[in-house]
## 1
Amino acid sequence: MEQSDTFSERVKTHAARLCESSPAAITGLYDLTAQRLVRYAATITRHQDDAEDAVQTTLVKIAGQPRLLQSSNQPWAYLLRMVRNEALAILRRRRHWHLVQNLTDLITWRSTDQLEGEDRNEAVWQALRDLPRLQSEVVVLKIWEEMTFQQISQVLEITPSTAASRYRYAIEKLGQKLRPLASEEVSHV
Amino acid sequence: MSDLPRSEPSIEDIILSAAHHVRPSRDLRPRTIEAARKHCQDRRSEQTLGGLVLAIMLLLLLTNSPVSQYSEQLRARREIPRAAEIERLALQYSHDRQVGAHFALSEAFNRLRLSQAVRFGQPMQKRAWAANQLSRH
């Protein structure tokens, strides 16, 4: 929670800079948040292009009205909620809904020293995509964004207990898929 | 080093390790910054245009408002007809009806009062009477 709060403070600082200076200050906010926003949006839209559209629309809105973010008590949660709303709007607009079965849409980091982790990471993303959206969102916010269930409930507009139970179900399902990976890692050592 | 068997990473650890697997595309940054810059410019233009429209609407409202109409009435009330104007009307009346100059002057003055009564919004009955008198003339 502490890390999440610290990050939220950094988001707020960038929003304040945006209010004081010019739209050019959006670069700072982009550099700070884009990767995290894209990965969150990608778990909702299940397509990177749509996720990037949602992030771009959100940041453009913030550039126009930075006080929205600055005046929020939880700027990071607020930004995530904005991205979520945009991502859901894109999903509604997309008439020909198609589920991406593979991960070919994703743009990933590829470095030679991380090749062995590549398969595991792809397995994680695939497992997250196989989950119902409402469950994968909670997992992303809990593990990657290190949010409490209270904070997650604010982003998703649900009760903390609902968030906790969705998380429990999701981890159970993810465990079935990812447990073999964990065992493999131990056997390789 | 410990000889204890290495424990299995938890599911949370495995998921956490994939946190930075996905990254934004290269063109998202310039695309977003350009869109933000354009959006802000458009907003500024809209605000300027909105201010102008508001100013014009206020101006129109002030010139056509009941207040301006009332001030126009007040101005008309203060307008005193010139003697030359009454004299001109009297001469015209005398010429049209073939009546004496004194009677024509009195009649012109009377007509002027009647027209003022109509213009300045006398009570309904009085206004109808005045309008009737005017039409008779």
## 2
Amino acid sequence: MPIFLYIERATFIHRLHPTVKVFALFVMFWSVYWVDHPLALLPLAAVMAAAAQITGAWPNFYRLRWLFILVVFFTTLAWMVFYRQGPALINLPLIHLSRASLLFGLGRGLKLAELLATSVLFLSTTKVEEFTAGLARLGVPYRVGFAITLSFRLVPLFIDSALTVVQAQNLRGYDFNRGGPLERVRRYVPVVIPVFMGALRKANSMAMALEARGFGMSRQPTSFIDYPVEAGDLAATAALFALGAVYFIIYYTGYGAISPG
Amino acid sequence: MKDGIAAPGAADPAPLKHDASAGVAPAAALDGVSFTYPGGARPALRRVSFELAAGEMVGVMGATGAGKSTLAKCLNRIVPEFEGGAFAGAVRIGGRRLDGARVCEVAARVGMVFQDFEAQLFSTNVAHEVAFAMEQIGMERAEMARRIRPALEAVGLGGFEHRDPTLLSGGEKQRLAIASVLALRPAVIVLDEPTTDLDPEGKAEIFALIGRLREQGISLVVIEHEAEVLRGADRLLLVREGEIIAEGAPHDLMTRLELLEECGVHPPDLNRVLAALGIAAHAASVDEAEALIRRALPRLGAPPHPLDTPTGPAAQAAAPCGAAAWSTDPAAGAQPLAEMRAVSFNYPGGPLVLDSIDLRIAPGEFVAIIGQNGSGKTTLAKHLVGLLRPATGAVMLNGRDRSAMRPAETAAEAGYVFQNPDHQIFAATVEDEVAFGPRNFNLAPGEIERRCAEALRAVGLENAGGRDPFLLGKGERQRLAVASVLALRPRLLILDEPATGLDYREQRRMMALVAELNRGGIAIVMITHTPWLVAEYASRVVLMRRGRKLYDGGVREFFARDELLASSSFRPPEATELARRFGTVALGPDELAAWLRARA
């Protein structure tokens, strides 16, 4: 099974300049940030669905479906319970359910889903090398950019390692699900230590291999791939500016907010 | 030069100091190098000097911790630049001293390929991977484009440019790592145990490639535990406790069998057979060994026809020394300890990884599961302990459906030792690590103590109970992992590559332990790529190929069947290959020597 989310395609979005893709990531986050109302978030969801369709990223969403379901469900539920504004539809000792809390909970769930979806779309269409190049073009030092993108490669490796450790401890009769919430967290010590030690060893091996292949020789290494700026990049940048501006206006005019009444 | 690989040293960007006294400079040289790691109790290298001539291949052999890798890392300044520590002496590459150079500055002159192929690949496709090092040294894009294809073709990965490196096989990943080094056109390439984690086919790929690199005039330093794979070297160095204790051509050094064993190196099987027959010579190949033996023992007669069946008279008569017997249904008749009934399995959305597997493991058996990477070996073993559930079919443990058993019941029947012991070690002391399993089953303190003592004694760690497991050597950690599973007293022990990453001495010790456990009544299932482990320790072989069981039977029969060996890319140990030339199937050098002596 591939450990990266990148899907090799030649779509318009795949071919965008890396800097435009990094900018798109920023604009989507920006737009999601400014509004709370589910209706205001829906157009962004539609944009993302269209992007997923165009780029063929749906298999990645399927791979991560449980993450989406759990995050969205529990966020929505938690905010519905703890957002105590507006006239109550149901009023119990701990639960104050109102139209506003329902909308707020839905909005928060949708927000998180959209932030996740933006990331999935970005990683489905952007190679880590492009990400590094994009960050470098935006003025981020090469070493910093490389370290950020390397983490995208390491995270799946560490998850894989953690799953193996869980299996090894399970086979020695260890029950991770015993006790209350705090006890359950504490019971992950036999996983955390081997994974941490393994990560340290892996990081050391990788650092050695990187230097042995010339990493650090140049402050601004050359790039094998040429990333010319094309008309499509300019058009996409303009569209992204417009989207960011529209969402700021929605926020500024108050249309994206939820009224307690 | 072939395939466009330019002359060594074509890229020359590093500001190294020229040594005017060098004369005709060797490709690389260490001059009186000593090195102690930070906090190290003793030097890892002591006054080591050696020269690597241009176009020469030097093999470096020695036990784990002898200083082989440290020596290699001096050549590209990882020692001391990356590791820190106290360094003395001089290192020269092409006559230039490396004093003060950074590791990255040496990259274009000395390429290094590490044992851990996963840790040296950073990119999302093969072409980017090869370009990575060239980007780092600031090469122009057009030049990179010119170099990528020849480098990939040189390692047999032409046409792989757009493939995802993470989806390549182990052998392909290691060849890709070599290609990315080759693209820089270094004068010297250092390969530090490059085949440790590879299956026999992957190993063969790497050594074939090393042969091609030699033809191209690249100077090579290859570190290995197995002497026989270094036969093609021009010169061998034997390292012990940080010193080069012997140096010479393969035909000199490889006949010093006792010295090799003392140094944790697996001596060549062919030379062991010759020595046991009193023939003082070095055999560079099975052909040569056969000729030497026939000359020394003329009564053996003419070469027989090849074995066409292991049940034929030659093979039957040949079954020497009462070694492992075979049958077509090894576990038939006995009450199986573990059984798989028509088990099929696939990961979500993926193809079948196991396809209708029937398997019975009887009490006290020693079964080797072999096959290429991705053939389904580990998936099969994980079904036996319930780490995976079959899509169809059933797994039975001691007559009970495993899916209906609690983890505690499974653990008492079957234990699993992972390939990497570090995947389970977490406790502060060795004793706590072993006690972890029994404690999970809420056993009484006295019983836990008894089991710990018993398990530690079994693996030879009875005096290490209070030590920090993270400070143990790899071999000791591997034995600790076995002890921590043994403490649960399983009747079936599954070991995934138990000898990987260990030197020969540690491998022998580990396998002696496993054989002892087997003699004590524990059934063993061992997943392995190592032919001599199968030949010398297992009594039954299960050969997997693309999720199907291709063969299930005796070891001797397996090694007699050419078509199986060919289709599985599993090469028999050289002693077994040599035995077949004499019409028998021997499972080790001693067995073959005894058989030959009896007929001489």
## 3
Amino acid sequence: MVRMLGMVAYLEVHGPTPVATLAEHFGVTEQRASSELWTLGMSGVPPYLPDECLDFDFDALDEGLAVLRDSQGVSQVRLSGQEAVALTGALATLIDAGTAPEGAAQVLRRIREAFGDVAPVTVLEGAEHVGTEIRDVLTAAIDGGSAVAIGYVDAQDRRTERTIEPHRLVAIDGVGYVECWCRRAEDYRTLRLSRIESAAALASEQTHGPSQEPGFALAAQYEATVVVARGARWAFEDIAGTSIVVDDETATVSFGVTDEDWAAARLMSVAPHLVSVAPQRLRDALARHADAVLAAQGA
Amino acid sequence: MSEVSAEQRRLNLMIALSRTRHRLTREQIRARVEGYDTVTPGASDEERQRADASFQRMFERDKDELRSMGIPLRTITDPVHQDDLGYRIDGDTAMPALDLSLQDAAVLALAVDYWAGKPLEADARHGFAKLISAIAHGESPALPFGGMSTTAGADAIAVLAAAVSDRQVVRFEYASASSPTRRRTVQPWGIVMRAGLDYLVGWDVDADAVRTFRLGRVQGSVRTVGEPEAFERPATLPLGGLDEESPDHVAVVAVRPEAGHALRRRGERVGAEDGWDLFRVRYRHADLVRAEVLALHGGARVVEPAELAASVAAHARAAREVARG
């Protein structure tokens, strides 16, 4: 029905339009578009006097041309609350993460005005700072198909100099990344924008096109089973492929470990709520991690 | 009557309810709007009951469908006969002219992609379809940008977004950072998103106060309770501590040379001590800074505040206990 109202809105603005064009615009077959236009033409309030129906030229419609003579005030409806949350939330998030294309802010402003009501979603500025100068170097290289030399600090806190071929800026859960070919790793990488300390444009042309695989395609090394107090279950709900079984007091969480250090760090963050950790291998990593922290903290 | 498709029936209903000056009762709707099961003359009681039940079911579904499209379909009670319900579509429901371009459509398509595989995807698609309705047909440019949402909180957002707009009370289990896990009953006022952390601001019915909830700490599913339009939303969302320019807590963290680069970038260097660099770091949630320090594998330690330092040590000790059995 959203699509049918959309066709009315399109015809109101653009006048007579071939059914084929409408079908393409709204992503349906010509047959479907035609049948929906007929349905529109039959709609109204009984006794369906001429001024109580949407008025189509049915002869033209038979010839494959949609001609709307009178829409009777029927048109596309405003965004619903959920639609506004989805679209404005995502757009504002892309903008804040530094991964929105030019013009996104204007689109966002116009949608907000169009929604009119008290916005059900507010997007606040994040703490991560993505320097515009770094972003500008990356977008210029994406557009120009060239490489960039960057200084980067990885998640394990190692600082490296690398040459990358940037393909796309993406926001994952509100955090900005660049998808690229990394010449140092000789592989595709998704690098966090806020961890790029410096970026310098290179004349060198890109040698690899964008990856067809989505990022984070790491294979799990082994399966972990962790029992935590029920109240700490949230700490595991965002791990992809996690299964959680809850009883009165505890939650039993199973997940694939792709990076042992990362998993140990996650367990540390809810340590007082841990009941048991398996297998031994993960317990050993957790013990090493805990010892290192205690040595540093001097307690 | 069966030749009238559900879509056509809903269109007819929408037109009829937009046209009416006062309101239409269920019986008026059934009689006037084409597509509903009417009772044929001479029908038996049983046939009549079946037709009645079928009409009620269809009408309920259509009403929900129109409301979920964002159409303000109001229930109007007769001032004299309170139980005689009528319906009307109020106000200006038409999408205003936005004058969007094909480039804008491509930007909006990114917002749809962001929710791929999440419950809000369908809403994003519908909203997209509405917004691009009047854009002249053409090829949208492919933009080298993208995004996706993978957090558990994103599942709760869809239910909460509907509950906020319908003004319907919600109930969920919540693990607060400071108090034990318990069930919360909340009038949802608004959703706040910031850099991957999503929040719900609303009136906590049991606490009788405004509360902010981190969606990542909502356990399991969010359920709606009671009827829509159950409360008023404030015109301005009280953001509490969320809207402050900068986070309100400050920690001093000692970082080993060549370590803690993320902390170094974010913080302000305030000196050195025994070969460690000292950084002043602003933060909003103590548990997130603690997790960051814990993750550095001894590459950093908290100097101030003392409670944060103590809680880092306590977490490490607890981890050691579990790891060593």
